[in-house]
């Protein structure tokens, strides 16, 4: 298929997955509005309909909780084909039924980029209305996912990381006691091959964490104190730090001085804090279980987001370049979600090996900004190849390039349009 046919197909996937102002990740497997999916989708829409891009983000923020949190799923209507639905979560934090935790905060970064690339003249107005909401969400992260002010962001559930069954969660998850869960029937394994999805033992624990947080009424301070899972995540930490820098740019552009001053203190705290995630044996940033003080021992795709977060230490850059080249010699398509040399790597099981287009986009941005155009371009070209070969799949095998998980996937289409498509790359900036 030619690039322009793929461009057309990507646009029609977004339009078909549009539910009237917000977009589902894919039909069947994910029938609701997901947080970071929607934000990447906005980036995709912005290539052909900027008003629609703003609407996507504004509808996400309609679900913001009173405490500032923006939930990972908004259950705008009941859909029995998805589990766990609203009755399992038992939340009451905002105007729309939702899950009880968040997802990687990419919103401020995309909002800033919508403003920078505005063709409508209406961006400043949209951005000004979103600024206090973004500030509230970022404050929530700092208060309740970094209560000890370490300068790193913890996740209270593997799903909050957006990288659901990453090997980094294994040990912390094993320590979660299976309790207070009703008999249940999974729905994910009826939509896609169970060999690509998390195991039942993991699922029992996912639900036990939900039950524990529900017991404290999803009160964020109590959740931070008592949740059986509390792991600092390099993925969310780096995405958050990057989002803070983009939020600062936005606040400065809007001449919001008080906000800008506050955000600068966040950035300073995070820049210092990320050091606790550095594993000097592995030579990369890894996860840190805040309950036990133990670091994990594997390089994940999020380790490479240090550059996207703006960490400009020459040692970090050269360590990541070395990891990049080592991994590139092991797989055909970059960037596997987990190190292929690690014992936990599995090329087709969800976040234990496969490649995701939107992660490649962020890693490449970081490499390019660090002056490493060659590795950035390698990521773009691999992403384009994967999509040209296997279509708009949820994720891809780094070894064979086979598409896996759900099909006609929204964020894969959005990333094609906004970054990977060769026809996009030829357009003037
Ligand atoms: C899975 C992914 C998560 C994503 C969701 C919808 O749960 O792990 O990151 O947001 O699917 O695509």
From TrEMBL:
<dbReference type="InterPro" id="IPR012341">
    <property type="entry name" value="6hp_glycosidase-like_sf"/>
</dbReference>
<keyword id="KW-0326">Glycosidase</keyword>
<feature type="domain" description="Mannosylglycerate hydrolase MGH1-like glycoside hydrolase">
    <location>
        <begin position="30"/>
        <end position="412"/>
    </location>
</feature>
<dbReference type="InterPro" id="IPR004888">
    <property type="entry name" value="Glycoside_hydrolase_63"/>
</dbReference>
<comment type="similarity">
    <text>Belongs to the glycosyl hydrolase 63 family.</text>
</comment>
<dbReference type="InterPro" id="IPR054491">
    <property type="entry name" value="MGH1-like_GH"/>
</dbReference>
<protein>
    <recommendedName>
        <fullName>Mannosylglycerate hydrolase MGH1-like glycoside hydrolase domain-containing protein</fullName>
    </recommendedName>
</protein>
<dbReference type="InterPro" id="IPR008928">
    <property type="entry name" value="6-hairpin_glycosidase_sf"/>
</dbReference>
<dbReference type="Pfam" id="PF22422">
    <property type="entry name" value="MGH1-like_GH"/>
</dbReference>
<keyword id="KW-0378">Hydrolase</keyword>
